[in-house]
Amino acid sequence: MKSDTPKVLHPVGGQPMLYHILATLKTMGCGQVCVVTAPNMGDVRATLGNAIDHAIQETPLGTAHAVLSAESYIKENQDPILVLYGDTPLIEAETLWLMLEALEHNHLVVLGMHRTDPKSYGRIFADETGRINRIVEAKDATLEERSHTLCNSGVMLIRHEVCLPLLKKVSNHNANKEFYLTDLIELGNQAGYQSKVIIRHYDELRGVNTRQDLSEVEHVFQDRKREEFMKLGVTLVDPSTVYFSFDTKIGPDVVIEPFVTVGPGTVIEKGVTLKSFTVIEGSHIQENAVIGPFARLRPGTKVGEKAKIGNFVEIKKSTLDKGAKVSHLSYIGDATIGENTNIGAGTITCNYDGFSKHETRLGKNVFVGSNTSLVAPLVVEDNAILGAGSVVTENVSKDSLVIARAPQQNIPQGASKFRDKRKK
Q1: 34 by DSSP, 3-state: which?
Q2: Whole-angstrom Cα distance, residue 35 to residue 324?
Q3: E strands, 62-199, where?
Q4: Parallel, antiparallel, or unpaired for β 296-297 and 279-280?
């Protein structure tokens, strides 16, 4: 990946790849997980914390050796051992359930996929019933074997009672001098155990080794999300231009125009319209609000029913109540905007003094004229009117009219005098 970030922590849909797998296991009710890492992968262990078990593979001696590094964990648990990979984030719970069903009549179950360009994938050789005869790693395969298109994803489910005995029989007599997990199949066959392949689509099983791979996995993830939301009643005018996050929640009858990006932590209720070139993250948008075009909603933003955020407006950590409007060219930060309050063009909340952030609170039915600066901390009560171009530094009481700008001076012939002076 050519990165300081460990590969499995690179994001897909705004979430580290490894977290996708853990989330899938959680939906299945899998309460016990052990993550095997290398000694230098402290960032991964620190990110995951103590909520799951950890094992360290001291030297990179192959996939079987990696699983054997978790020997103490395997001994402690009597359930089947499911081996997954941190860089294969798109595997679905439905597929893992199929593997569990197949394990009822088998000792080992492997996930396979057909590839017309198998490249470095190991090849699975199985009969027409799916029983596996052997798996050959690409580097050890003959030219004829490499023409085989059924490939090994690496994902394997193993009955607990056969897992450790087979792992301890694996040797490293191969081109890479590594201990391969795939050798469990041949060793199992020799011991009279049954092995089966479950075949799934490549998009679900593709792994990530490069930035190009990461972009392809992101593409698959986004297509899944787009299809999911359209089935739930969301209109995507141009689906391929809209991007979602792993935790995006959207209600029915939402309309999303082209080139919209929805970041993590966002809830969009029914009837909302998101206009083009809008970016949203960490926000909650209530029913029938209209956002954009060219709007940016930053984390901590809550937009009320029928509120409007217009073009070139940035909202940060603020609440806009029902019917509030910030129609154009404004910045609202650390603020509460009351019902039906209207914010004129060019208005900003001056929420930062160089040391601390301060709050601005506007009541109901407040009218803020264009090009107004609201210097926080500030409270403006209901029904007040703030004149255009004002710099408001003091609290404003209910129904007040505020004009806070320098008086205008009109100097007769002043323009001519100014030009003559400049020419000299």
Answers
A1: strand
A2: 48
A3: 81-83, 108-114, 123-126, 132-136, 150-158, 195-199
A4: parallel
Query: pLDDT tens string for the chain (424 positions)?
Result: 999 999 999 999 999 999 999 999 999 998 789 999 999 999 999 999 988 999 999 999 999 999 999 999 999 988 999 999 999 999 999 999 999 999 999 999 999 999 988 778 899 999 999 999 999 988 888 888 888 999 999 999 999 999 999 999 999 998 889 999 999 999 999 999 999 999 999 999 999 999 999 999 999 999 999 999 999 999 999 999 999 999 999 999 999 999 999 999 999 999 999 999 999 999 999 999 999 999 999 999 999 999 999 999 999 999 999 999 999 999 999 999 999 999 999 999 999 999 999 999 999 999 999 999 999 999 999 999 999 999 999 999 999 999 999 888 999 999 999 999 999 9
Q: From start to end of 29-172, where are the E strands?
A: 34-37, 53-56, 81-83, 108-114, 123-126, 132-136, 150-158
| pTM (two decimals) | 0.93
Q: Which two tokens stand for residue 356?
A: 């601390």
Question: Residues for the chain: how many in total?
Answer: 424
In whole angstroms, what is the distance from residue 112 CA to residue 132 CA? 11
Q: Which tokens hold the place of 162? A: 């056969």
Residues that are catalytic = 328
